[in-house]
Design brief:
With 80 residues, the protein is of the alpha+beta class. The protein has one domain (3-75): Roll (Thiol Ester Dehydrase, Chain A). It has helices spanning 3-8, 35-50, and strands spanning 12-15, 18-22, 28-29, 32-33, 71-75. Strands 1-2-5 form a three-stranded antiparallel sheet, with helices on one face. Strands 3-4 form a two-stranded antiparallel sheet.
Length: 80
Amino acid sequence: MTSQFLDETTFERVSENSWTGNLNKNWNIAGIPNGGYLLAVVLRAMQEQVGIKTLLSVNAHYLRPGVSGEEGRVESLILR
């Protein structure tokens, strides 16, 4: 994985279950962040949360398009 991709998908951890950062416009399609890029940001935070480098499965539903160039937030809740 390239350093640029790592940098652009890593948010800063601000609490035990919360991360903040800016979505990079390099991953936009028609002005909207690519869904795979959004998921990569979330998965990077989840990897840090659970301490596992290789996550085995993921299912995602997008409630609305992401917005690049503004501060974003990832929050986690471990159910098991």
